[in-house]
Design brief:
Structural class: mainly beta
Shape: elongated
Number of helices: 2
Strand content: 35-45%
Helix content: under 10%
Radius of gyration: 31 Å
Distance between the termini: 98 Å
Largest sheet: 17 strands, mixed
Length: about 475
């Protein structure tokens, strides 16, 4: 905050008291559209008889962001009233959080989030007599929401946890305190900021220990202290090759902010057992593996890039394959659309997919194995081949097995040295010939039309009476 500020106090019912400052840049307006920061300021009432504010709808407690050097061009954000959390009673400092790009509740003059000069907090007096209505504010902070920005909260180094954000944000003394907008209740943590796990050039080992992490909604019912856009609460990974990340916790986001886990540095990111709900697009890179549950809002997508492995995951929503490298998906459930963003042949093994689409611009072949179900193919240029496992049992160890398609004699599977059984994944409905050859046994073959479900075929290989083992 600069020294250029002003305050005004009113005792008349319906009038507003407030405090206003310039941002520290002084005469240089702040471009929140390119900086993409959120503005945090603390507020409290110093005594019970000072809590005399109007309702939320009547602008009981508001924050304004000003574009002009004066006071004519501003946007008003309603953050409290006598009928909301912030204003019902006296309490300790509470955080008011504004994304200056958010829509707000009312504009006066011409407000431009790309050129913000001032901010203020004001309270409108209601009806009680006695002491004048007055609120006190603490330090104000601008918190970054872009990856690697200088003022986005980061946790990095050896053995870090998300609880370490408390030290980063709450600080150790008043000189480095940003405010109490992260809170803990048992194993649940309220995190009202964007943050980053890892830092460029640093090795990070991180474990969320299976705990629960909650991010607020914008203008939520009864507690509108947070005015957020869909980018304000983003989460990032920034990892070196030696970093190791374990995520098994529950992440509940009140806004569809993107999660950027597109890490491709050679680090290990294991998200086994984690649950992600409410956030926006979630991109995972080749460092990421493990099964998780994704419950994303309409319009949000899980994006699998390169060789990221989410086998066994349940995606309530859509999923896109981009980059290249993923040829097999195993045990994946997608309740929305699975889109193929690059050309190729893909094996879906034990998957349940609602709909498949193709944005690659070329041909896509899907081989469905182990009971894979695809409810709808809307293409374009998608060929689906359903496969089933055919297992031969009773083999003499060391048998050579060859599997041919009858229609064109193409070899589809086989082994030179078998065990006591052999399994081939084959197109449902195809006419197949199995040819078996083993020392001291007659060469044999048999035909089979591949059924719609996995099947087992026992065989007996006859002795070759003319075989001479000497």
């Amino acid at each position: 905050m600069s020294t250029s500020g002003q305050q005004w106090q009113e005792s008349t019912v319906g009038e507003t008291s407030g405090i206003q400052w310039e941002f520290i840049e002084g005469s240089t307006p702040i471009d929140f559209t390119s900086n993409e920061e959120i503005f945090v300021i603390g507020c409290q009432f110093n005594a019970p008889n000072r809590v005399d504010l109007d309702t939320l709808a009547n602008d009981g407690l508001t924050v304004r962001m000003y574009s002009s050097s004066g006071t004519t061009d501003y946007r008003t954000y309603r953050v409290g009233g006598q009928d909301t959390y912030a204003g019902k009673f006296r309490q300790g400092p509470f955080a008011l959080m504004i994304d200056p790009q958010a829509a707000g509740n009312a504009d006066n003059g011409t407000y431009d989030p790309g050129a913000v000069r001032r901010y203020s907090v004001q309270v409108k007096r209601a009806q009680q007599g006695g002491a004048s209505n007055w609120s006190y504010v603490s330090q104000a902070w601008r918190i970054g929401t872009q990856k690697n920005s200088s003022n986005i909260p980061k946790v990095y180094g050896a053995g870090v946890k998300l609880e370490d954000l408390f030290t980063e944000i709450n600080g150790t003394t008043y000189t480095n305190t940003k405010h109490v907008f992260v809170q803990q209740l048992s194993n649940a943590f309220f995190i009202a900021c964007a943050f980053q796990i890892g830092k460029s050039g640093e090795n990070t080992t991180f474990d969320d220990e299976g705990k629960t992490f909650i991010s607020p909604s914008s203008e939520q019912m009864g507690d509108p202290r947070y005015h957020l856009t869909n980018t304000a609460m983003r989460v990032y990974l920034e990892l070196s090759a030696s970093s190791s990340i374990v995520m098994s916790g529950t992440y509940n986001w009140g806004t569809p902010a993107p999660f950027d886990f597109d890490s491709n540095s050679g680090a290990s990111v294991n998200i086994t057992g984690a649950t992600f709900s409410g956030m926006g697009d979630m991109t995972v890179g080749s460092d990421v593996s493990g099964s998780a549950s994704f419950n994303l809002p309409a319009g949000a997508t899980v994006i699998i890039n390169d060789t990221a492995n989410l086998d066994g995951s349940t995606i309530t929503g859509d999923c896109n394959l981009i980059g290249s490298g993923v040829a097999t998906l195993t045990g994946l459930t997608v309740t929305g659309v699975l889109d193929f963003g690059y050309v190729g042949t893909f094996t879906l093994d034990g998957c349940a997919i609602n709909e498949v689409t193709n944005s690659s611009g070329g041909a896509v072949t899907i081989i469905g194995a182990s009971g894979t179900s695809i409810a709808l193919n809307t293409g374009p240029s998608i060929t689906i081949e359903n496969n089933a496992d055919v297992t031969i049992t009773g083999l003499v160890p060391g048998t050579r097995v060859k599997v041919y398609r009858v229609s064109d004699n193409a070899e589809l599977a086989g082994t030179e040295v078998s065990g006591t059984s052999f399994t081939a994944n084959l197109p449902v409905g195809a006419d197949i010939t199995f040819r078996l050859a083993s020392l001291a046994r007659r060469i044999s073959e048999f035909d089979l039309t591949v059924p719609a479900t996995d099947t087992t075929v026992p065989v007996t290989q006859q002795l070759d009476r003319v075989y001479d083992n000497n």
